[in-house]
């Protein structure tokens, strides 16, 4: 029996989701009026570097066996409230330091005061690899922080940190070859990609097959699959905020890696006593060793760097940048084939200079100047695209924490994109020489312009009573492309039933401006809109096992569609709703997680005549990830993923034109489904010394049980026009090996 047939109560869940909007209001009301146990206690303290006596920012402080977790602020200070009286173990940890634990006794009297002195370490401990959500706001729902060390442990063949994200609830990739993400029934272009808070235009290589991010450069990833706060704007579905790590400040270090896809080198170390750097370069190499006339093996590269400089104890400067590019050339010799030539080239650069100023214990500021550029060329005979985008920008964020009850955040950003985009497409692509005849008529569109985009937000994190907290925010965005603004109110709340159990909810408006191409055709288009409704329950089952359940509803409106004459309008609409389950064991030697998502997604947009199943609708998503460390130097990784088939429009017959070419005739839109998809990957990792250098080798097998997953169909026709569907498949069984050296 198929997995999707096991969900016999889907209809019941669907009806419950339709009532979510009404129940959410009641739930938030209950949050605000939860009863407080007046006998609970609290604790406060600081975390410092034992050697230098420096206060540590962002250290992770947790009461073991509960969900009570805090991150230290810019003065190394933390404060935890609503702790039932009793004995506990309190742990402080931070990447690059040995974790420290203290036995504490909580009473209902004055707050207990604690001081942690952490010792620096070279080897990261397993406990640090699985640090909990220390950056995401306490009241955020559908959010978590993934540590960079964990991402590096799972990157495998393509060494891509984003390959791990589809194993989390509600996230799927467009295809198994792609790192484009679909989040909770949303489209890939509804996701906000940030690198150190700077939007990244195109963070992919080869149309999405591989991301531009090097896992060795990542400190952590903030992932929001819905209900994200007001500081994030201009996207409808999700946020992926990738934070790069600082270079080592104690000694010069390096790393070199070779896999079947690419080679990578990294170097880091101190510049002065108060500054450090980190630099990595990665490149595919097949084009350097294999040469064939008329064919250039596709190649890519990316270079990432970061400099950290402490001007003074209260001032820090960060300079970071990412440069990535790719190129490919294919020329076909058969005179009967077309196109004759395909060429692709692009270069994307993202850079920023950030100044953090800790004004005082209660106030700090982050000012960033950013710059992005993208240069793209694509040619397929007479069809070509040539485009450039240059975008300088500035962003200022302020955080004011007058006391332990209120935290006020506000910020403003201004961007100035300059676009120069030209395209040419043959009017009749079925004309025999449409792609090769230089005299053929075509449609050319040139887009040129200088635009302004701005956003302002304010949000208040308020601990109403010790076990009830909220995040209330408002965001305003404006652009001079259509000269329209959007107002986006948002609220999330959290009610802690006890030290191991909490309820959480969120509601908010989200907007996304149409593309420059869409606004060029119709400058009166409004921003696309979505309303998020989320309700969740989380529990610390044991000291290292955590689970949560969430249900959600997203209502879409003002989606871009076509009217009868082919012009863009805002008449599109739709919805996505679902339920998600996540269970995670976080401590070595045996760790991992299980996720399940049930969802429905329907839309009317672009060429749809009526509301249909959305092309990225998938009823069930299941992931099982296991990581087992044994014999100190060995690690076994396993990953299994299942997804229901997505909808497609079938071809019901073919009609021949006067030139004998078959023109497909489609059936009912999105009325067929691809077969279910599932795949099992396994990897074995070994650490050892090679010539005195710490080394790491891995063997990985993708699609270990050789599942033939159907990715699509190609159509041929009988003489009477009856279509013959031939499936094409995804990855076969793929063994691979890689090695890295640390020096």
UniProtKB/TrEMBL annotation:
Any one Pfam family here would be TonB_dep_Rec_b-barrel
Give GO cellular component annotations, separated by semicolons.
Answer: cell outer membrane
- GO terms assigned for molecular function: siderophore uptake transmembrane transporter activity
Keywords, sorted A to Z: Cell outer membrane, Membrane, Receptor, Signal, TonB box, Transmembrane, Transmembrane beta strand, Transport
Question: Where can this protein be found?
Answer: Cell outer membrane
Q: Write out the GO biological process terms.
A: siderophore transmembrane transport
Query: What are the TonB-dependent receptor-like beta-barrel domain coordinates in residue numbering?
Result: 361-686
Q: Which domain of life is it from?
A: Bacteria
Per UniProt, what is the membrane topology? Multi-pass membrane protein
Major place of localization? membrane
**Protein's name in the database:** TonB-dependent receptor-like beta-barrel domain-containing protein
In its UniProt entry, the species of origin is given as candidate division TA06 bacterium DG_78
